[in-house]
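step: validate -> pass
step: tokenize input -> pass
step: predict -> running
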Amino acid sequence: MSNMARIRRGQRRTSPSLVLALLVAVVGSTSATQMSFAKGDPNWDDVLKNGRQQLAIGETDKAIELFQKTVKKYPTSSQCHTELGKALKRRGKLSEAKAEFKCATELNSTYADAFYQLGCSCESDNEWDAAAEAFTHYAELCPDAAQRKTIEDRIRTCKGHKE
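step: predict -> pass
step: emit ->
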């Protein structure tokens, strides 16, 4: 059956080379996108560093502004959302901070700091199940022996509150 006959009958035959070309294009664009969010981006590093410095010297509002701009430029960056959450938390905007931490964990399930920060926020809000889950995920991602006991104690405490 010819391609024209298939099209008339509603049957299309997809060319293997077309499928391969599309796959390469998607993978290539994903890699390029991920690279633009990489720590090697000088603007990324500079803005995050500057925002952290602003927080360190007590300029929380300036830090929030910088991190908000960074989140707009890199909306799929869990690191940017986490840093914005930390600044919002420092300003006392706890529900907004927790939303940023939650967003960061949804964007990247391997960014440990986002899970730690989310766990702390949930723990503060007496959301014991969510806190235990976030701390557990953090412990799986960051099994550092020095902090492991502390995290395990926090997980036990959270689980104890929910019973």
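step: describe -> Residues 1-36 form one domain.
step: cleanup -> pass
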